[in-house]
Amino acid sequence: MTRHQKDPRPRRPRPGLAAAIGGWSARHRKTAVFGWLLFVVLATVLGGMAGSVQTTDQDEGIGQSGRAEQMIHQAGIDSPATETVLIQAKGFTATDPRFRAAVNDTIGAVKATGAASAIASPYTDGAIAPDRHSALVTVTMAGDPDTAGDRVAPVLAAVAATQAKHQELTVQEFGDASADKWFNDSFTHDFSRAEWTAVPLALGILLIAFGALVAAVLPVLLALTAFIAAGGLVALSSHFLHTSDDASSVMLLVGLAVGVDYCLFYLRREREERAKGRSPEAALAIAASTSGRAVLVSGLTVVVAMAGMFLTGIADFKAMGLATILVVITAVLGSVTVLPALLSMLGDRVAKGRVPFLGRRMNAPSEDGSRFWRAVLGRVLRRPMVSAGIATAFLLALAAPLLGMHTANLTFAQQLPKGNTLVAAQQRIADAFPGNPNQATVVVTSDRIGSPAMATALADFKKQAVATGMLHEPITVTPYPAKHIELVDVPMAGSGNDTTSGNALKALRDTVVPHTFGAVDGAQAAVTGQTAGSEDFNAQMTGSLPAVFAFVMGFAFLLMLLSFRSVTVAVTALVLNLLSVAASYGALTLVFQHGVGASLIGTAGVGAIESWVPLFLFVILFGLSMDYHVFVVSRIKEAHDRGLATRAAVAHGITSTAGVVTSAAAIMVAVFAVFGTLDMESMKQMGIGLAVAVLIDATVIRAVLLPSLMSLLGERNWYLPRWLSWLPDFGHGETAAELPEPRGAEQPADRLTV
C-alpha cells in the first residue's frame, strides 16, 4: 500500500479521558488502589497536623458593618464576651430583700467560678426595668472572647444553682458565650448525627437497589474515603482561605451524595453490560467510556457551579465553595480511578452477599427498564404536549411563593428550636428591657476623642437617637482615648431582622450618625451589630446575584454544548434546571416562611429564609441536577448515535436509566432530608430545599418534562449551527459501538441490576 492509498481498515477512535483512566486503572489495579489509600492517608494526616483555620469576624464583615469591625480590629480592641443574667419576680420588686438576696447569690456564685473578669450589679449600673420587677446582672467573661463558649459552662451551672435556690424568682442567663456554647455543642451533635444517620440510609438504599452486600458497600466506602481525604485538603487550604463550620456541613452533605451517586452510575453500567453477556474487560471498558465520562462532566459542572460562590465576596460562601469543590474533585477522582481497579479485581464477585428475596428479584436484565417507568413514559410520549403542559404548570404553581420570599440573617431565636431555654431567656430580657439584646454599635474614630466637640456630638447623638422612637436608652459609651476610638451601644426596636429593626438602622445610619458624629471634623463613624450585619449581607448578596447567575449558567451552557454538541440540549438543560430550582424556592418559602407543613419537620414558620440559603441552593442544585441530566441524555445520545430515531432513543434512554436515577435520587433525598431533621434552622432549610429539588428533578423533570420536550423537538434536539461545527466531538459510547455484540449464553454473567 503506497502512501497515497487510503487504509481500508476503519480507524478506532481514540478513547476519551475517562476511558483512558479507567483502562489504566484496570491494568494497574494494585497501583490504583494503594495509590488511592496513600492519598487518603496523606491528606488526612497532613490536614490534621496543619489544623484548620476558621473564619473570623474580620473575614466575614462586609459593607459598613465590616468596616466597623475592621476599625475595632485595627485599634487592637477585643470586645469581651458578655453574659446577661435576668432576675425577675412577679409578686415583688427589686427593692424586696428576697430579690436582693437572689442578686447577691448570683454575683457570688458566678464570682466563685473564676470565669468572669467583671460582674456588674443592677443596683450599681441601673439595669433595673421600669416596672421594677426585673433586673440584669452583667457578667464579663475572662480571656479570649472567641473561646468564651468553651469556659462558660461553670457560669451556667452557677446560675442554675441560684435558680434552684430561689424558686420564687426567675433566674436565667443569655449572652455571647452561652450562645456560642449552644451552637458549638449543637453543631458537633448534629454533625455526628448526620454522619451516623446518612451513611446507614445510603447503604440501606443501595442494598435494596443492588440486592448484594459487596455492591452496596463499595460506593459508600469510596464516598466516605473521598470525604475524609477532602477534609484533610480543606484543613490544608484553610491556611490560605479560611474555612467554617457551615463548610464542613456542606462538605459532608455533598460529598456523601455525589460520591455514592458517581460510583452507582459506574457500577450500574458495568453490571448492565455483564448482564448482557459482555466479557469483564469489555463491560468495564464500556462503563469507563460512558458512565465514567458522565461522571467527569457532572463533576466538572458541580465544580464550575460552586466556583460561582467566590463571586459573592462573602467569606463563608468562599469557604463553602472551596470545601464543596475539593470534595467533588476527590469523589470524581476516586470514581474514575480506584473504582475501575476494584471492579477489575472483584469481577463478578461484586455481586456476592446477596440479600434474600432482593437478590433474586434483581436478576432480570434491566435494559428495557422497570414496568412502572415504561408505563409512565408510554403515557408521556403518547401525549407529549399535554404532559409538558401539566408538568410545567405544576412546577410554576409550586414556584409561585418565591415571589414573596423574604431573606434575612436569622436571629438566635429563629435558629434555635422552639422551647429552647436560651431563647426563652432572650425573649424575657427583650420583653423586660425593650431593645436589649438587639443592639447596634456605632464605632467612632477620631483624634479628638474626649474633646468638647466630641462630647457635644455624643450628647446630640443621644438626644436625636431617642427622639426617633426606634432607638432607646440606655445608650452605653465605651471610650478608648489612647486608641482614638469609642464604641457607642444603642438598643434598637424590633426583633433584629424585621421591618422595624430595618427602619431603626436606617434612621441611625442615614440621619442620626451623619448629623452628630459626622459633623465633627476628622471623625469617622460606622454602624455594626446583628441588624447592620444582616442588612449589609443581604445587600452584598443582591449585588452579586447577577454575576453569580451569569457565571454559573454561562459555564453550564458551554459544558453541555461541548459535551453533546447541541445548542438545543444545552438550552433545555438550563431551562429545566431553572424550573427545578424555582420550585424548590417556592416550597422553601411555603414551609419555612409561611409555616405550611412546618410542624411535620419539627419547626415553625420563622418569617424568613436564611440569607445564604437561596444562592447556595442555586449553585449546588445547578451542579447536582447535571448528574441526572448528563447521565440520562448521554444514554439518549448514545442510542441516537447508534441509529435509533429520537423518539425511540428517548424511550430507551429514559427507561434504561430509570432504575439508577431512582436509586441515586433516593440516596440524595435521604441524605439531604437528614439535614432537615437537625436543630439549626439554617441546616433544616438547606437540607429540605435540596431534598425537594432533587425529588422534583428525578421525577417531574426527568420522567415527564425532559422526555416530552425531547419528543416534541425530535431531530431538532441535536441542532448545532454550521458555524459551531468546529467544536470537538467527545463521542458517546464509542467503546460499546466498536465491540462485538455479546454472545449471551456463551458468556454467562452473574447479573446484578438496579
From TrEMBL:
Q: Which Pfam families match?
A: MMPL (PF03176)
Q: What is this protein called?
A: MMPL family transporter
Give the highest taxon in the source lineage.
Bacteria
Q: Which residues form the SSD domain?
A: 216-345
Entry's SUPFAM superfamilies?
Multidrug efflux transporter AcrB transmembrane domain (SSF82866)
What species was this sequence derived from?
A: Streptacidiphilus alkalitolerans
**Where exactly are the transmembrane stretches of this chain?**
33-53, 196-214, 221-241, 247-267, 294-315, 321-343, 384-403, 543-562, 569-592, 612-633, 654-676, 688-713
- Asked if the keyword Transmembrane belongs to this entry, the reply reads yes
The places in or outside the cell where this protein is found are: Cell membrane
Bilayer topology: Multi-pass membrane protein
Keyword set, alphabetical order: Cell membrane, Membrane, Transmembrane, Transmembrane helix
